[in-house]
């Protein structure tokens, strides 16, 4: 994707899993990548590795639920590398919970990590994109709000809302040349998921649900993100794209 070369890209939750794949792949396209994460040693290690390899990659330790801190990190990146023309709202945390135990504070906490920061990051990058007359925003959602897995009501509510946010902001920002899309991975094999519950048995069970053989890996998701970020998708906005091996729609 030649249009991504030199393009400033901001990614949240870039220190592991799908976000890490995105940091690596955008860097490989020649983009200038800024990413934030609470996983500080992992973020620093990734940024150092890619910088040593000659890429422009900057890591800022930041909890995206601290909206002011996240705004500052986005502003610092813009001062150093230019206004973000691509934003990937990727950070999330899918903790299982029983609906009957949910407190008001827990609700706020889950919405903050899985939804709220995405809106405020858009608000932070939009002025620069408006000045440039172009931009692409990608909100990570999930297959899970379409198939509804057990014990994830708050995560699934946030992920459903993420697509609502996509559609609404696509309307708000579209005439300024800014596109907003939702990218919904299926069950994706990341180090954290392997640690949590992926075994050969669960991965085979997931595969059995999909239309396609095999499992989804982070780079499969990232390839769609690159397309949505690049000028190749210039007339695509307000859409949801599933990279799920054909699970949810079969
Ligand atoms: P992951 O847990 O491997 O990585 C998420 C990253 O976000 C981590 O590095 C984590 O430290 C960071 N993070 C979490 N809370 C943060 C906070 N408050 N501030 C800053 N950083 C924070 O997750 P993943 O599996 O790579 O998922 C990436 C995205 O894809 C998420 O939006 C997730 O909901 C979505 N998704 C993943 C799957 C899957 O199967 N892996 C499926 C559907 C959707």
Topology of this structure?
Blueprint: E1 8-12, H1 17-28, E2 32-37, H2 40-52, E3 57-61, H3 67-81, E4 86-89, H4 104-132, E5 135-140, H5 144-147, H6 153-173, E6 178-185, H7 191-196, H8 200-209, H9 218-229, E7 240-243
Parallel strand pairs: 1-2, 1-4, 2-3, 4-5, 5-6, 6-7
Bound molecules: nicotinamide-adenine-dinucleotide (NAD).
Nicotinamide-adenine-dinucleotide is lined by residues 12-13, 15-19, 36-39, 63-65, 90-94, 113, 140, 142-143, 185, 187-188, 190, 192-193.
Report on this structure.
By secondary structure, the chain is of the alpha/beta class. The protein has one domain: Rossmann fold. It has 9 helices and 7 strands. It has a 7-stranded parallel beta sheet, with helices on both faces. Helix 1 links the parallel strand 1 (8-12) and strand 2. The structure holds nicotinamide-adenine-dinucleotide. The site of nicotinamide-adenine-dinucleotide has 29 residues, from helix 1, strand 2 and helix 7. Keywords: Oxidoreductase.
**Which CATH top level class fits?**
Alpha Beta
Sheet with the most strands, sense and barrel status: 7 strands, parallel
Low-confidence segments: none
CATH superfamily: NAD(P)-binding Rossmann-like Domain
Task: Tell me briefly what this model is.
The protein has nine helices and seven strands, in the order βαβαβαβαβααβαααβ. With about 250 residues, the protein is of the alpha/beta class.
Question: Which short descriptors sum up this protein?
Answer:
single chain, 250 residues, alpha/beta, Rossmann fold, 7-stranded parallel beta sheet, globular, binds nicotinamide-adenine-dinucleotide
């Amino acid at each position: 994707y030649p249009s991504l070369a030199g393009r400033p890209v901001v990614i949240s939750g870039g220190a592991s899993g799908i976000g890490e794949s995105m940091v690596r792949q955008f860097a490989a396209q020649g983009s200038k990548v800024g990413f934030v994460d609470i996983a500080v040693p992992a973020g620093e290690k990734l940024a150092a590795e890619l910088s040593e390899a000659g890429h422009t990659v900057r890591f800022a330790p930041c909890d995206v639920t601290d909206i002011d801190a996240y705004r500052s990190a986005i502003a610092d990146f813009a001062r150093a590398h230019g206004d973000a023309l691509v934003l990937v709202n990727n950070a999330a945390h899918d903790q299982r919970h029983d609906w009957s135990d949910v407190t008001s504070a827990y609700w706020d906490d889950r919405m903050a990590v899985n939804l709220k920061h995405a809106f405020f990051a858009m608000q932070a990058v939009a002025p620069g994109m408006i000045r440039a007359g172009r931009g692409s925003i990608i909100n990570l959602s999930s297959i899970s709000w379409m198939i509804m897995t057990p014990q994830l009501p708050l995560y699934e509510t946030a992920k459903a809302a993420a697509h609502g946010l996509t559609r609404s902001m696509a309307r708000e920002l579209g005439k300024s040349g800014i596109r907003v899309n939702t990218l919904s991975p299926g069950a994706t094999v990341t180090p954290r998921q392997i640690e949590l519950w992926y075994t050969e048995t669960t991965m085979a069970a997931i595969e059995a649900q999909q239309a396609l053989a095999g499992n989804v890996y982070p780079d499969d998701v990232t390839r769609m993100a690159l397309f949505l970020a690049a000028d190749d998708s210039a007339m695509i906005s307000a859409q949801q794209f599933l990279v799920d091996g054909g699970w949810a729609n079969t």
